[in-house]
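Posting for a labmate who doesn't have an account.
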Amino acid sequence: MFKLNLKIALRNLWKHKSYTFINVAGLTIGMASCILIFIFIRYHLSFDEQFANKDRIFRMVTYWKYTEGEEFQRGTPRPLPAAVRNDFSEVEQAGAIQGSGGILKIRDESGKEKIKTAEDVYYVEPQFFKIFDYKWLQGDPQQALSNPNTVALSEKMATRFFGDWRKAVGQTINFQNKTDLKVTGVFENVPENSSIPLKVVISYAGYTNPNLRKWGSVSSSSQCYVLLKAGTELVQMQAQLRAFAKKYNSDKEVGERKYFLQPLREIHHDERYGSGRGTMPMKQIWGLGIIGLFLLITACINFINLATAQAIGRSKEVGVRKVMGSLRSQLMVQFLTETLTITVFAVLLACAVTELALPGMASLFRGNVTFSLFAHPVIFVFLFGLVLLVSFLAGFYPALVISGFNPALAIKNKISSASSGGVGLRKALVIVQFSITVILIIATLVVLKQMNYMREKSLGFNPSAVALVDVPSDSLSLERYAGLKERVLKLPGVLHASFCSASPSSDSNNMDNFSFETSKERDFQVNTKQADEDYFKTFGLKIIAGKPLSKSDTLKEYVINETMLRKLNIPDPQQAIGKYLNISGDQKAQVVGVVKDFNNLNLREAISPIALSSSKIRSTTLAVKLQSGALMSTMPAIEKTWNDVFPEHVYGAVFMEDEIGRYYEGEQVMGTLFKVFAGTIIFISFIGLFGLISFIAAQRTREVAIRKVLGASNLELVHMLNGSFLAMVFVANLVACPLAYIFASKWLSGYTYRIELSIWPFLIAMLVSVVITLITVSVRSYQTALKNPVDALKYE
C-alpha cells in the first residue's frame, strides 16, 4: 500500500512542478537553517558534560553586595580551598587551580634549545583530579603533582615538545627561565567543549604568591572546584557558606562578601563571572532556538497555504477516488505520503546545504562544530524528528481538508475556495508569516544599530593604532625596561610608548579596599591600574584637574577618575588634589590629578572608580601609539627591538582595537545571524507569497477575463488582486510591532550604554514588508492581467 501511495505521490509532485519546487525550496532553506542552529546549540550545551560526576561538581565564586551595586568574581581567596576541606563534611573533594602563563623551553640531548614558547599554564592541587576524571595515559594523577617543580602535559603538548608523548615522562622543561620542571604525567587531550582547557599543569606545591594566606585578596585566576558528596542538599550547603564567609572575611572589608556554588554545567553560560569571551549565555541559545522555530513555522506556512490553495485543482481526483471506494483515512495517508516525500527530499537537500554552510558557521562562531551523524547520533535523532514534525505540521491540515471533500460536489467541480481549506485560515497564516518577518527585520535593525553605537561611542580614550606588547615582569627584566622604551620611541612611526599593567579598557581589573583622607564612610572598592608618566598621552586620556603621574619606578602618587570623586561626594575635582589615598592599607600616596572618565569595562557595565599609580614591577605591557599609516612597517621593527632586549623571552602583541572588538563577539555573531536569518525568512516568504498569488490568480482567471471584457484596466485588475494581501501585511505589522518592541527593550536593558529605541526600525520594517508584498504580488498579478480574455472564455 505504501509503495502505491508513494508512486501516486511522485506522479502528482512531478505533475505540479512549480508547486513542488516552491515547497521543496522553502522547506530546504528552512530546515538547513534549523540544522545549523541545532548543531551550534548542541555544541554549546555539550560543554563540561564529559565528566562522570558532573552533577556534583561546582565552582566556588565570590559575590560582593554594596549599597550602590554588586560585583561578581569567578575567583576566590587563595586560602579558601584548604578551609573548605577543613570546614565542610559535605564536601568530598576541594581543589585549587591557579591560572598563569610563562615561557617554556625544551632542550635536546646536547643541551641546545629546540623549543621556546609562551603558553597558558595552570597550577593545580592533586585533589583537582579526584574531582575531574581526566584519563591519564602515563603517571598517577594523585602522585604526579604531589611534589614541587613537577609538571603534567596533555597528549598533544607532550607530542609537540618531545616528538612522542610516550617519551615525555622523566624529561625536563624550563619554566620562566629559572625553574626546571620534571614531567611526571601525560593525560588525554582536553576537548574543546571544556571550560578548563588544560594543556600544561604544574604542581600547586611549587606555587608562590604574597597573597597565599590573605583572605582579602581575590583574583579571577585563582579558582576552587568542589565535589559534593552524593545526596548533599545544595540549599543547605549555601546556608552554611554564609556562616563560612562571616568566619573568614574581615570586618573592615567594604560591602558584604558571599560565596556561592556555581554548577559546572552553568559555567559556560554565565556571563556574570567572567569577561564574556568564550561564553554562550542561555538567552542567546534561546534566541537562536526561537529563530529556528520561526524559520520552520514560516516554511510550514508556505506548504499549508499552497496545499490548501491547490486543493480545488485536486477536488475531482478526490471525488473519483471516494466514489471508487477510498476511505477518508486512506486519502489522508495518501496526502501525508506526498508531504513526507517532499519533506524527505527537502531534508536531504538541507543536509547538503548544511555541509556547504558549516565552514562559514564554524568561522563565525569560533567553535569546532561538525555535522557528523556517527560522532553525534543526536543529530540523526534531530533529523528524524524534524522530518516527522514538518510532515505533520505542514501536511496534516491540508490532508484533513482535501480528504473531506463531498464527492458529488467535487465531481461537479463545485468546490469553492471557502471549502478548500478556508480563505480565513490562509489569511491568518500569511499574517503570522509576515509578523515573524517584521519582528526579525526590526530585531536586526535594532541589533545592528546598537553594535554601530558601541563601535562609534567614545570610550574616553583613543584605542586607534595602539599596540599592546607583552613584557616580562621578572626582576632581571625590569632593568632593561628603560632601554626598551627608549629604543622603541626612536623607531619611525612610533608616537608614544607607556609601561602599564593594562590598557584603560581591559579584562585585567583589580578591585581593592581603600581609605581616603576626606572620606569617613565608603561602600565601594577602587579599581587599580599601574601606569607610567606617558600613559595619558599614549591613550589620549584627558586630565581635568591637577597633573599626570610623575616619572617613577615605584608608588609615588595617584591619579583618580571622576566616578571615584562622585562616589566620594567630592563636587570639585580640585578638592581632591593633595589628599592622601591609601589602598589595601599599605599603598599610601597623594592624589595629584583627576582624569576624565573612561570605560574600563565593556559598554554593558558602568565605569568603575579608578586609581592609577606607577609601579614598574607590576607592569606587564608596553603600550605603543603608532602613526595610523605606519602599522605594517613599524610592528616588525618593534618585534625585532623587543627580541634584542629580551632574547630569552617570547614576543607577543595585539592591537587595542582588536581587544575591544572581542568584548562584543556575541553581539557580532547575533548581528550576523539576524541578518542572515531575516534575509532567509524574507526569501521564504517571497517564494511562498509568489506561489500563493499564482494559484489564486489561476482560480480567478475567468473573473479577470470577464472584468477585462467589461472594460477593467490592467492597473485596476492588479489593484483588485493586491488589495487583500496588502491588508494582511498591514495587520501583520500591527501584531508584530508591539512584540518586537518588547523584545528590543528587554535586549537593550542588558547594556548600561545603549541606543534610544526610536520609531525608525518599525517604519523601515513596515516599508520593507509592504514593498516585498507589492513587488511579489504585482508581478504575478500583472502577468495574469495581460492574458488575452478570449483564452479564458472561449470554452464557456
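Reply:
Got it, the C-alpha cells are right above this. The longest strand covers residues 91-107.
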